[in-house]
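Weekly sync notes, structure subgroup
Attendees: PM, AL, DS (notes)

Item 1: joint prediction request from the bench team. They want all two components modeled as one assembly rather than separately. Inputs as received:
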Amino acid sequence: MCPSCEPEPAANGNGHANGASNGTNGSSNGSNSHPGFTAVQTKSNPHPHRANPYQPVGDFLSNVSNFKIIESTLREGEQFANAFFDTEKKIEIAKALDDFGVDYIELTSPAASEQSRADCEAICKLGLKAKILTHIRCHMDDARIAVQTGVDGVDVVIGTSSYLMEHSHGKDMTYITNTAIEVINYVKSHNIEIRFSSEDSFRSNLVDLLSIYSTVDKIGVNRVGIADTVGCASPRQVYDLIRTLRGVVSCDIETHFHNDTGCAIANAYCALEAGATHIDTSVLGIGERNGITPLGGLMARMIVADRDYVMGKYKLHKLKDIEELVAQAVEVNIPFNNPVTGFCSFTHKSGVHAKAILNNPTTYEIINPADFGLSRYVHFASRITGWNAIKSRANQLGVEMTDEQYKECTAKIKLLADIRPITVDDTDSIIRDFQRNLKLGRDHTTRPE
Amino acid sequence: MCPSCEPEPAANGNGHANGASNGTNGSSNGSNSHPGFTAVQTKSNPHPHRANPYQPVGDFLSNVSNFKIIESTLREGEQFANAFFDTEKKIEIAKALDDFGVDYIELTSPAASEQSRADCEAICKLGLKAKILTHIRCHMDDARIAVQTGVDGVDVVIGTSSYLMEHSHGKDMTYITNTAIEVINYVKSHNIEIRFSSEDSFRSNLVDLLSIYSTVDKIGVNRVGIADTVGCASPRQVYDLIRTLRGVVSCDIETHFHNDTGCAIANAYCALEAGATHIDTSVLGIGERNGITPLGGLMARMIVADRDYVMGKYKLHKLKDIEELVAQAVEVNIPFNNPVTGFCSFTHKSGVHAKAILNNPTTYEIINPADFGLSRYVHFASRITGWNAIKSRANQLGVEMTDEQYKECTAKIKLLADIRPITVDDTDSIIRDFQRNLKLGRDHTTRPE
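Output from the run, pasted for the record:
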């Protein structure tokens, strides 16, 4: 019921370099600094050329194979607690995102501060392939500043939940609708793209939402936006709302998901299945609180759904560099469990997994690390290792034994690994000692030192 | 369309301590080590006693309000690249999870190594409230070892996808079914709970799956398991498969979701909506590759769905301690974007957000940090701050001015924040200088130094 990985490009051999770096904490082959890991070369072609019986069945609504990214590291990401981007850093990030292939780059409102306005103008002048957007409140003052900056489009937002109407801006739906119409007509008159979005859409009145979206669609907005501003929405709620909205408006549908309850990637996917066209992302998901749909996590989800589309459009091998650029700029570590680029995303440890991976990586990998310029690792220095992993390591060391001897040698390694964490060097020593003792005809049941 | 937070316990006041720690990188009030943050006390009761119009409508299938946790840090978590737990650490983690209130604790197979067996026996003897499970391959050798350890239940697993049948164990469905029946009957004869699970369920043949689950259900298995071993499943696929299975078996349904494509929390939620009863978790999600549904992330999702159930069952204020315990044991940092306990999960930065949060936190928070013993923060030292946040900070400092003066003072702060990252001390200095100049009758348009 799931797609497997697609065929490997022929030029790549099996595509899995031995000893290449794997994530920020990745180890090179046999390094002591990351004990117990080694990059592995697998016997068989892991991604054989054959039809995939598990390809999901799409329907007429789905944009899973035709989505666009609105990259908001320079807007939502600037609302991340640790973020301060000076002009130079903003330009560096914008260029990297453009090179990666995102469709739009969204910037902080030029009304936020004088430097925000100047930076917005500077990025508009770079001549990037990506369209440049800025994000403003639904207010003519902000709109007037925005259209002067040279942006390709303006993203307008206003809170529509009872919470925000009561405790934030204090306006009712009539005021919101009238202001929206004024702002939209003004921006359109400057031949600039315009999106109108509610804020906190999943706690807004459905009739209010559909009513205002229908209105702004009729006056010619380019996109409407659905925002889970507080991160409360569940995937099936997202599907239902977007599917309903898809029947109400004919314009594009942009979606924005916060990650407070851990569903931001899944919600983006379900939105696309229901007919949304654009997904807001940020690098590493940085944004207000614990952030939004991460660019890398979305790539992980979407490459599993349609590898051809994703590989044809985005430079996936640049993902790790972009994440490191932004992580350094906002002074955070790339999380150990980050999709794709986390240091252990492609590390296999248990004996059962290692054995299967050595036969064929598609057994326990839905993503081919080579697509992102990364390698897989087999961790063989632990008590849950198996003899197939040890045999593989022994062969890397040029040690050949019988299967029975590999099994005995593995038992020795597990015996030591039961007592303390062991390193690649420990394991290699045991393998070499075992073989030496065999050659010398010594008792091979001797305990490791 | 989303639940808001529930009423606050009366004894707690508004429940939001001023200056309490917020996550590992949390700052105390006004500390220079974490510039620009301060814990805030909000004016209004953020969680008023009123009916919630956004409560999702449950249906007869849903176990969102009646789920059980099988905590697998000591099994799946031991397969995490960095994990080595000695006996003492295992016992410490088991006790902490038991105290937290998880329903089951799952341990590494006693067949994995001699120490794994001894540790399993030791944990069974602790007399914990949680039931102790061990996880074994579908093989009589493993089953015989497992039933001798004193566990309350055995979790049996075998790969059923074509990938695993071909490249891992090499057995066909007839062999799998016959072995399953033998193992299940053997374990049941010892009056021990038994779960039978396929591995890589979402790449398995649906007819094979339903057929074997129907068979094992009839012979009296306690639970069947659905495992997304490679992390490929999407939320709607999960809902469909579990809902179908719910119509086929009458026993409990356990689910296990890997996080390779970032959907592990969302998939767990959709599984419960479709009638699953048990969710596998690990602390921080540690496991093979980048892991499974995290305990803390699941709590974040579920407290939004049914706060009473979650608060009544689990000691949420212990979550941070447990995460720190496990993070130290496996030598990783708690990710900056971790649900609930990430250092910025409850930090609000943009002017619009800060203003609304100061009025009522439910505007931009779907989770009450006090439920987890944590605090919210307002970050007011940046160029995207607003005058409401600065007014709030000024009032904390005992500085009273007119709204017009707060706005002018805010403009000065934004001017400096446009140039470089600023600290709480910078902001406080500007506020105090501004007031001093006002008192002295000086020109209050003077630039900050």
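Discussion: Residues 68-330 of chain B form a domain with the TIM Barrel fold (CATH 3.20.20.70).
Action: AL to compare against the crosslinking data before next sync.
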